[in-house]
Amino acid sequence: MFSDSENQINPIRTIRFSESNLCLVFQVYLFRFGKHGITLMGFRGPAAWGILDNCHKGPTGGHFGANLTARKVLESGFYWPTIFKYAHTLIKSCDACQRAGNITKKDEMPQQSISVSEVFDVWGIDFMGPFPDSKGNKYILVAVDYVSKWAEAKASPTNDAKVVADFVKSLVCRYGCPKAIISDRGTHFANYLLEKTLKRYGVHHRFSTTYHPQANGQAENTNRALKLILEKTIDNNPKIWSQKLEDALWAYRTAYKTPSGSTPYRMLYGKACHLPFEFEYKALWALKKIHFDDIASGKERLISLHELEELRSLAYENSKIYKEQRKKWHDAHLKEINVFKEGDKVLMYQTRFKFSPGKLKSRWIGPYVVLKAYPSGYVDLMSERGEFKVNGHRLKLYNENDPVRNGEVYHLSKEPIT
């Protein structure tokens, strides 16, 4: 007789086939006694994988996770010692499961910052809109300096290449030739007219990866700030936003920026911007009288220039420390970082698909083959249409090693059951 006392039965996860004394051999099959009744324990051939595959992908499977799939096998009356391990292996290779779900901030790549030492060396440009028509304008073209955070913006009826080229000419004429301009890969930036203009001034054009605006983060941050200012100042009348744009720029330029520890205006001119209410409330500057002492004015100006250099050096150090702290905090909240290698197969998350109201279609497309992975987080991929570049945040490794399809067999023991 076999005892069915619960305290004599080890938990399923810790039971050992060789140590179990609650087994029964019937014909060529091995059974064990458990709290849910008699369970088939041993079988030959690829049956183990077949049972798991049916409990996961079959009509009643539901593509649940490894633990729930293994539990369904147990509930069906089957068991073998490494059932949970093999369930995890099977689920990792399931094509449907790999294409499910979204990406989150925890899936991002380690943060990479852009280091710039001189004012107006690097500009980030981007379009905002379309907005409600305001005096014929529907878009805002924004440019921001990466060091001082100084912003320029222009309202425009269109977002085409000519608008961008004219805007860049205006920037160069007022602030000199930058070393680089960063933009996304939209057709209003990636075109012959703009490239010809930039080549004329010796400016290098750098692109952020497709569908990953964070790569041009400074322009994106400025866009959000200006948009928020406009939302709060248009008095529920969207048609006047173009009239409020200059005021929004003024507010932005005179606002304290945490990374630099200063305002864009002070970073550029070495002094605070005087505001209208200073006259009304008698600020010290408003009470001062204009004097024409050239010597005293010259000394004062010299001191101001030295202070400006110190201010910019300090702002550079503050910005560097701020970026390091942000990177440390950002990277600490990531999951296990994906390391892509040449030849890996990956799925890509398509962020701008338009779906039906049901939203049942997967956003993961591919698989694609990795050609090269860069330390900055960019990855070169190969598809049927050719090579393209994407940020690693939108990728995940694709596992096509299906143990059921490959005919792998699970052997319970080396000796046949007799």
Automatic annotation (TrEMBL):
Kindly give the Pfam families that the UniProt entry links to this protein.
Answer: Integrase_H2C2 (PF17921), rve (PF00665)
Integrase catalytic domain mapped to chain residues: 106-272
Q: Which SUPFAM superfamilies match?
A: Ribonuclease H-like
* Biological process per Gene Ontology, one example term: DNA integration
Concerning Gene3D superfamilies, the annotation shows: 1.10.340.70, Ribonuclease H-like superfamily/Ribonuclease H (3.30.420.10)
Q: Give the GO molecular function terms.
A: nucleic acid binding
Whose protein is this, by species? Centaurea solstitialis (yellow star-thistle)
Q: What is this protein called?
A: Integrase catalytic domain-containing protein
InterPro entries from the entry? Gypsy_RT_Integrase-like, Integrase_cat-core, Integrase_H2C2, RNaseH-like_sf, RNaseH_sf
Q: What PANTHER family has UniProt attached to this entry?
A: ENDONUCLEASE-RELATED
